[in-house]
Amino acid sequence: MQILGIETSCDETAAAVVASGEAILSSVVASQLATHGRYGGVVPELASREHLRAIVPVVRAALEEAGTRYADLDAIAVTQGPGLVGSLLVGLTFAKSLSFALARPLVAVNHLEGHIHAVLVEARRSGRPVDFPALALVVSGGHTHMYEVTAGLGYRLLGRTRDDAAGEAFDKVAKLLGFTYPGGPVIDRLAPYGNPRAVRFTLARMKGNPLDFSFSGLKTAVLRWYEQHELDEEVARRRKLVAAVGRPTVAQWLEVTPQRTLDLIASFQWTVVEELLRRAAEAAEQCGARSIIITGGVASNSSLRREAASARLPLPVHFPTPHLATDNAAMIAAAAFAKLSRGETAALSIAAKANLSLA
Amino acid sequence: MPADLIRTGSEEETVAAGVELGRRLRPGTLVLLIGELGAGKTTLAKGIVKGLGAAEPEEVSSPTFTLIHEYGEPVRVYHVDLYRLEEAAEAAALGLEELLEREAVVLVEWGEKFPQLWPARRLEVRLRRLADETRLIEVRDPAADAEIGD
Asked: Which CATH architecture best describes the domain B26-134?
């Protein structure tokens, strides 16, 4: 059983072939970072245009790498949402056309469910399968959501961000301080040079659902610190460095970043990781989880991985390998396998849904 | 309409001010939410969305990454964030004009970066952080101000 997965919900055009929901035969991602880096983010019109340009070669490359042909595919899987409608439409329309032309079923997948399956598929392959019920934390630039995942792959939303996503907080703090986009990897690489307990940020206390997240207050606290410490000059130096060299190395960043700013960065990251893991542990306990899944782009953060793997979480924690943490199509094809075995196929009339929810 | 000035002392009060404002907005209204990082734009948007009966405040989050969030079924509020964009052409490519023709309120954060994009008929809401929790919110209708000026 071979499934072709297609993912175009945001800034990546991706296609993959997955056999029996387990063996990733190919996973091609046409990273658009080169285009978006210049704009500090995802530009929708550019994104749609880039997806249009990339979709045919990316799908072709996925088939070639998998050593398969259209005729050998058993189903076409595609991300239906959430995401940018214009971007989603490119993948969805292409998938519908293939489904119709090849007379193969179409399977519509929620992007967040895909991120969870990125971990499930790898865990199965490694012989260390995820024990259910599991607590899944999906954490990226656009999402910070926690779900209970049952053995039958049912989902229950336990908490989510009320304002900024964790990855967005990384991006905004990095931009404020004159670092490059995306902010997560830069902060992750510089944080080890600072003291994570130098600046004591207040952890968010949530009214209502205590398992919800909030990163807006932390962002404002960093801004206040910035204002109090007159960072304009060093930020200008970093912007000049970026203008001169594009993507600076760690050594180049360190030359234009004083110790107190490294301390600030380390403290900021420490606080984000603390917020994520503290609530994940609470949520896992509340739903009686037997394991924890942490997935999405921020799951690549080395401090988050280190802290989660330390004794502080009382359950086995599963992370995706880095190439499956960020957006990809293998996770979409893997999620589709489970849906297909339950007979959950989609009509060709389905629409892209910007705010599609998982539970 | 003369400028309204509202002072709020907490996040809850900012949401409540948004609810009041939302109740007065008619479909097709464009609202620019103007204020620096952390001024409370998304917090006020939570209230406006609630006041329009499109969603609960907890469901409204920052659209920075995805650029546009939609609330209500059919959509009654588009919540747009231009923080990441650097050129007016990119912002224009979002199809905001098309959104304005629909029967929905369009809330735009960081819209003041591209003044050339906006029609005269709009509301401008300015948020200022006075202290940690205190915000000053000013609601203005620039078209009405111009008429008074004439």
From this structure: 3-Layer(aba) Sandwich (3.40)
